[in-house]
């Protein structure tokens, strides 16, 4: 079993729609949960991180962590074509375990 | 946020040559840096942990003699791909841990002909 499971998609949505991304993980000891965005041929850039359980909101982005279910989510509201990218979840404390990444396309 | 740079951003080399990739933390010190490899449309695979002043720690299946890592200072780690072959062609990314997360470099695309 992989440490982090993420549906690679691809996911295509119309502009303005809500994008919903999620990952499951196996190690209940993990405390830090991160979402990275990666554009083609670029390094990942941090979008949001959450410590332990709960929700975190930053503009159009909302990250949720459900430690009881070992499930994390990222929601993008009012999606824009510029949100088209691959979104990677990453979980861990010092060394990170990454999901496979979900490729998202927002259609204008 | 913190900035991590990589050099070069892209390199093309002939099979059998060695290639050095630099990773620098520009505005913070990093006693540890991580090196990842990413294949097209795949996730990041951790190769090794670079430790300032001591030997790197390699993940299972990663050849130490093939991928030489040197953490020369608190802001610089280098990855040398020795005797590169076409199967080493990949996107190599480094990261350095910040207070609560890790900051990634922009990546180096290596193509071995």
How is the topology of this model organized?
The complex is a heterodimer of chains A (108) and B (113).
Chain A: E1 4-6, E2 11-14, E3 19-25, E4 32-38, E5 45-51, E6 54-58, E7 61-66, E8 71-76, E9 85-92, E10 96-98, E11 102-107
Parallel strand pairs in A: 2-11
Antiparallel strand pairs in A: 1-3, 3-8, 4-5, 4-9, 6-7, 7-8, 9-10, 9-11
Chain B: E1 4-7, E2 10-13, E3 19-25, E4 32-38, E5 44-51, E6 57-58, E7 67-73, E8 76-81, E9 90-97, E10 102-104, E11 108-112
Parallel strand pairs in B: 2-11
Antiparallel strand pairs in B: 1-3, 3-8, 4-5, 4-9, 5-6, 7-8, 9-10, 9-11
What are its keywords?
heterodimer, A: 108 residues, mainly beta, 6-stranded mixed beta sheet, 5-stranded antiparallel beta sheet, B: 113 residues, 7-stranded mixed beta sheet, 4-stranded antiparallel beta sheet
Order of helices and strands of chain A: EEEEEEEEEEE
Gyration radius of chain A, to the nearest Å? 13 Å
Sum up the overall morphology of chain B in one term.
globular
Count of DSSP helices of chain A? 0
Strand percentage of chain A lies at: over 45%
Low-confidence stretches of chain A: none
How far the N terminus sits from the C terminus of chain A, by CA atoms, comes to 38 Å
Oligomer kind: heterodimer
